[in-house]
Design a protein that fits this description.
about 300 residues; two-stranded antiparallel ribbon; 10 helices; UDP-N-acetylmuramoyl-L-alanine:D-glutamate ligase; alpha/beta
């Protein structure tokens, strides 16, 4: 009998229309052979870059009830936990308890934490989440995927070059995570992903050509792909190459699609919704165009 499929509990946002949060993460993970159970921290009509947004926000009691239902039925067996956007301090604290509970059930569970707090110098979650991430959640994470702004928030250090990124990553390693991947740094002309895995004793970087558009949901997709390829590939260099090549070619396809014909009523955000379904073959068999370099 073959081993059971790896199983992910993904706790992040949900939109009815478009691709962010769980809508960005679930389909790629399933294509790559993972069972996915999704808990939606918020349920919105669409993401917040649109003119209007309607929806609901789960609180910590809602999360507790959902997990209690799974626990009562003995359904809370997971190989991985993935967390993304959380909008309240009490919900984030509840995730800390969730990590303890799931690791008690499966000590080998891998917790992949995307500490979603902001980008481009601006926080878009309540400021009190920073302290909770830094002091309570980060020490529980096995794999951490901040962007450059979140890296600076979590370490209290501004980063202006690769050496400073490396130093900030070492600070995060000191807080607990064995693998730290800075999903994007804006240093020089290209975007650069920097990754460090203590188990392998290496740090790598991968330069990504810029596209002239700011995408929404790409960080959520990055974290999901990294979870998958960290499990499937067995080494950080190959995992990063698979992750970044997949992401870059999906974004490139999305950008090219955005240049085509759209209804006059289409908002700018609608034109650059991630083209995940059209990218099925890219997810399953990504190109090998972008190659990582060992630092």
């Amino acid at each position: 009998m073959s081993d059971p499929l790896p199983k992910v509990l993904s706790v992040q946002s949900h939109v009815v229309f478009g691709y962010v949060g769980n809508k960005s993460a679930t389909f790629p993970l399933q294509l790559l052979g993972f069972e996915v159970d999704a808990i939606n921290s918020v349920q919105l009509s669409n993401h917040t870059k649109y003119k209007f947004v309607q929806g609901q926000v789960l609180d910590e009691d809602d999360l507790g009830k959902l997990m209690d239902g799974l626990r009562q039925n003995d359904l809370d067996h997971y190989s991985h936990l993935l967390t993304g956007y959380v909008g309240s301090a009490s919900f984030l604290k509840k995730i800390g308890q969730l990590v303890h509970d799931l690791k008690k059930k499966n000590p080998d569970l891998i917790y992949v934490c995307d500490p979603v707090m902001g980008d481009n110098g601006k926080m878009y979650v309540p400021k009190e989440l920073l302290e909770i991430y830094r002091d309570e959640i980060i020490p529980l994470a096995d794999i951490l995927t901040p962007n450059q702004f979140e890296l600076e928030l979590l370490t209290g250090k501004k980063v202006n070059n690769i050496s400073e990124v490396q130093n900030a990553i070492e600070i995060l390693h000191g807080k607990g995570p064995k693998t730290v991947v800075v999903s994007s740094t804006e240093i020089g002309d290209d975007l650069i992903t920097v990754a460090s895995a203590l188990k392998e004793g290496i740090m790598i970087k991968l330069e990504i050509p810029r596209l002239p558009v700011a995408f929404t949901g790409s960080g959520d997709l990055f974290a999901a792909l990294l979870l998958a390829h960290s499990h499937l590939q067995g080494n950080i260099k190959l995992a990063i190459e698979k992750t970044v090549n997949t992401l870059y070619h999906i974004l490139k396809r999305t950008y090219e699609f955005s240049l085509g014909n759209h209804p006059d009523s289409a908002q700018p955000s609608q034109k650059i919704e991630l083209r995940l379904i059209e990218s099925k073959k890219i997810i399953e068999n990504p190109p090998s165009e972008l190659v990582a370099e060992i630092l």
